[in-house]
Amino acid sequence: MSHESPVTPIVLSVDPGECPCRTDLYVADHFEELSRSRVQSLIREGRVRVDGSQVKPKHLLRGGERIEVEEIPSASPAPEPEEIPIDVLHEDDDLIVANKPAGMVVHPGAGVDSGTLVNALLARYGRLSGVGGPTRPGIVHRLDRGTSGCIAVARTDLAHDRLTRQLADRSMRRTYLAWVAGEVSGREGSIEAPIGRSARNRTRMTVTRRSGRAAVTHWEVVARAPGLTRLRCRLETGRTHQIRVHLAHVGHPIVGDPAYGLSAREMRMRIPPGYPTIIRALSRTERPLLHAHRLCLNHPTSGASMEFEAPLPEDFLAFDRALEPFTETIPSPHPYAGRP
């Protein structure tokens, strides 16, 4: 008589700031490979549980719940270790903080099954937390392919669970640097606009009040140049593509963003006449100029407060140097002032 092996569920901690929200919408937003109808089927089959109980697809989440999703078969094979150099900012028995380079995918999926950060981490550490599922072991939060900088990775299931809860209760703080199109008025502000998947293209996100989930991005002006602004952005929530979508929504898309940014012609039109150096710098930009500069969290075992900073990569620094003669630095009134 055969017995099925127990299934290790993928665990989601519900952010109170996203609620109320339907269970099917919440789960679908966390799994790009699943349609909403597929998620609804999983819920009806009892393969999605909220606080240990079966629910209906339309069950309203209030915040703080623990959702368990049975492992979903993936077309991608389990990632294999690959000897790929990676910059590690911190490592211990529970936690890894890596400085992801632009151009590297975080975990396998969507036609990418090698060369990812997960492949590199498996070669270096051997085993990572399994809570996130077979294709994304250890991954607590993600960075887009074109985004560089700090990312936290869990080595144990307990660490993964505790770090995920820090994301849910917003005690994990993530700060980014970005160059955007246009001269942003004011010194600082917040963008509060719900984000959901585009009905036309599931790989794209959009601001939508019909099916979007609460999203908040705080921003502060760091520097200004003709037709451009350098921002420091802090995530209060963590939606897919959040900073990119929010900044595009308010008319200041990130420089070099192929999905939400401006065309080369539109970008040139934002630059006042007489600045060929800036035009040349823009033409050399090959990815969104968005960098996850700073990460603050509590250690998942000791509880100690920890802060990490990823140095700016060379392409970001090259853009800074090209614009330096025309750039006005804006002093910050906050404790984070003085840092790039």
Structure, explained:
With 340 residues, this protein is an alpha+beta fold. The protein has three domains: 10-69, Structural Genomics Hypothetical 15.5 Kd Protein In mrcA-pckA Intergenic Region, Chain A; 87-169, Pseudouridine synthase (2-Layer Sandwich), CATH 3.30.2350; 173-329, Pseudouridine synthase. The longest helix has 13 residues, at 157-169. Strand 7 (87-91) and strand 8 form a beta hairpin. The protein is 21% helix and 26% strand. Helix 1 (23-30) packs across helix 2 (36-44) and helix 7 packs antiparallel against helix 8 (314-323). The radius of gyration is 21 Å and the shape is globular. The chain has eight helices and 18 strands. The strands form four sheets. Strands 7, 8, 9, 10, 11, 14, 15, 16, 17 and 18 form a ten-stranded mixed beta sheet that branches.
- Determine the number of helices (DSSP H or I, runs of at least 4 residues): 8
> What's the rounded overall pLDDT mean?
89
User: Sheet with the most strands?
Assistant: 10 strands, mixed
The amount of helix comes to 10-25%
* Structural class by SSE content: alpha+beta
Tell me the Rg in angstroms.
21 Å
Structure summary, number of beta strands: 18
Number of domains: 3
CATH class of the largest domain: Alpha Beta
**Weakly predicted, low-confidence segments:** 1-6
Strand portion: 25-35%
Task: Indicate the overall shape.
Answer: globular
Notable traits:
disordered N terminus; alpha+beta; 18 strands; 340 residues; 10-stranded mixed sheet; Structural Genomics Hypothetical 15.5 Kd Protein In mrcA-pckA Intergenic Region, Chain A; 4-stranded antiparallel sheet; 8 helices; 3 domains; Pseudouridine synthase
